[in-house]
Amino acid sequence: MCFSHFLLAKIHRFNANVAVLRLATVAVASLSVAAMDVGAATRDLTITGSPMVFFDRTQNPTVSIASRVTVASDQPIQYASVRMFGYAGPDDKLDINPYYARLSLFNITWDAAKRELKIQKSDNSNFSGSNDIANLNEVLNQLVFFWPDNSITHNPTRMIEINLCEANKSYEHPDGTLHFYDYVSYSSNWSSAKTNAETKYYYGKRGYLATITGVAESQFSRKQTTATAQGWAGGSDAAVDGTWRWVTGPEGLRISGKDSLAGAVFWVGNYTPGGTKYVGDLIDYENWNASGITYTASGHRNTPTIPTEPNGGNHAEDYLQLVPGQGNSDSEGVWNDLSGTATLSGYFIEWGGMGESGNTITIHILPSNAFKSAMGM
């Protein structure tokens, strides 16, 4: 990302042994990222002033990352998740400033395995209404990052992602981050649906046509709508006929090991002759429609006996449609290939896994000479 200018700001760092807050000057990159609403709801997360924080690793290894996060929401928020992703030291930790005067209003828990700080109301009810959202804003600006190994010589960068989680909307994705899903009623062809999805933000995350890479994700995404809903998703074989790949989201940014083109491949060929899953890009999942489908009690599709998709449509059906399954409401639904000029009533949207600046803070732990250089000293 290119930043237009640098400014000076101050962050608090506290000595873990005394209740006296001291000030440390840091160089920060100026940025303001605003979010757009999904539907008529307000779901905004803005990080202003400093998505990138620099500080000296030779100093006190506990730093408060303050006055950067603003939440605006008219939806009930179950909890806030502040999570490190990518590299993190084994003892790195996120917390809330222990000297914060209103700490008793919140239930704060640290999950070392997930590297996640979870912030809830003290009674574990939803943040709902202007007073609760104001309190949530206040506590999010009391975030503290602690790295005990201040002689660290390996990776000096930490990525922190802030998520606001509504009930039944967040999914623990295999990539180690939280993803979010919805169904958007929007009559359009595939290309227009893709463009429309990319205009919708969910607490700082930019949307994309959903990329479904596993059973649990498929079932979770379908729970966001009615059992009869059908719509576009982010799969296509338009680049190479018969080679189906995810062309949206983080999977769409990956370069395939099969043909060196953008987009992780998950299927090669039509259902006849010899179409098969492609697992070389580490995606071992497909959900094409078939005749004689049966389901487990939990709604998972058993192995079909006679697959009927993708059929190619005389080389004219290049885009992925998700349609209802034949099982119960927890089923995965099934997939169909369809012409991109067809009009569907909606699409499945996903947010997450992109590492957007809209809901992330990057911390650079610098030795004193690099710190002074960043400061222009």
Short description:
This protein is mainly beta and 377 residues long.
Draw up the topology in text:
Elements: E1 6-14, E2 21-29, E3 43-47, E4 52-56, E5 62-65, E6 69-73, E7 79-85, E8 93-96, E9 106-111, E10 116-121, H1 130-140, E11 143-146, E12 157-165, E13 170-172, E14 178-188, H2 190-197, E15 201-202, E16 205-206, E17 208-209, H3 215-222, E18 231-236, E19 243-246, H4 249-253, E20 265-268, E21 276-277, E22 290-291, E23 306-307, E24 319-323, E25 334-338, E26 344-351, E27 360-366, H5 368-374
Parallel strand pairs: 4-27
Antiparallel strand pairs: 1-2, 3-6, 5-11, 7-10, 7-12, 8-11, 9-10, 12-27, 13-14, 14-26, 15-16, 17-26, 18-19, 18-24, 19-20, 20-21, 22-23, 24-25
Keyword list:
377 residues; mainly beta; Immunoglobulin-like; Mannose-Binding Protein A, Chain A; 2 domains; six-stranded mixed sheet; six-stranded antiparallel sheet; 10% helix; elongated; disordered N terminus
